[in-house]
Amino acid sequence: MFNAYREPYVVREVAPFNIDGLAIPYPEFVPRLYNFCRKLGFQKGRTMPSRAFCSDENQGLPIILLTKHFGIFPFNHGRVGGMLAVGRHGPHAQHGDDLVIVQASHVGYDPDSGEYGAYKRPDLSGDNRCASCGKLTHVISPYLERYFFARERIFLSRDENGRCLITTKNSFVDFGSRPVEHGLVIKLSNIVAQDNQGIIRPISAASTTQTYEVSPAFRHRLQEQNYTWKSGIGESIGKLLTSDLFYFKENFHETDDSILLERNLIEFMPDIVSARYPSLRAAKTNIQLEFARVVESIRRCDEYKGRNLLYIAGLNIDISEYKGFPPTNYFVPWAAHVQLQGGTPDEYTHPVEQQALFAGLMAQSSINPDQTDLKEKIHSMLKAPRLDIRSSR
After folding, report:
1. Together in a domain, 157 and 245
2. Any idea what the Cα angle at residue 272 is, between residues 269 and 275, rounded to 5°?
3. Confidence of residue 238 (pLDDT cuts 50, 70, 90)
4. Containing domain of residue 194, as a range?
């Protein structure tokens, strides 16, 4: 008899991305990065940096510092939201003997409140506080709206018989006869017990809602959070609508390059929209997924084979003008991929994970003896003779 084999449902999770104690000011990070490259054997004056940052003006300081410490303006690997254009590996490889790629999504940070997401645009009049990464915020906003809409329209209550109930709009329920085509879908299987036939049945229905008795497990879960069930219509579920209790069925909203960002995030959108700082969670999630994708592309890329290459990914934290000091950026390293021309040592066979990468960077000096004096370089350009440039015709 033929036995059909069926793979179990496999869940993908992102790894813990720590920030506390790991943020390095960019004026310190870039020279440490340069010295790390030199320790790996990269050549002075022959190392071509590349950056994959968002195009926002608040990413300017990192680019200037890469120019200053590596002595050349970095190649551009970047797309919206800190995505990396893997199709540009070949052109990048043609610009230097040794190669460095720095990739980062970014998020604003307010040192006074400790809140993430906003940035004060110095060239914008009036209330200049807005999203630090407009594209990332734009991508997650429709999902945030659906999440907050659902939080106020799903209710918990206790009836006169002592049963604990959940009442939800029909539009949030993936009915067997009429599944949700797009939008937020509540995971009733994580809230409501199934009958002995494996079917979830409501105990009552109204014009636009269904009411179910919650499972003992869900009731116990809320009890551990000291939740008090209320009689009558009860109250909206609010923050108790956690990421494991819903998912999204969506046709992608984006139509340009940012659809790549939306594709990265859609699977983890419940975790993002229910986070305390959605833009921070989105940025951290995106850079983790991007790192895995880019490492695979590097390993398949012929142009990087037999070359010295360091690819480092992390989070750029943008801080507006603060207490009279100009805007600045911090870098939180996430992971790095190292390959060396003479053969990659065993310690770099696998990616360098966050704690080891941070330790490796901090072990380097924050002083770069090879840094370029940009003011002197510009002054030399201004003193250069004016050339008589003519058409060849």
Report:
1. yes
2. 150
3. very high
4. 143-249
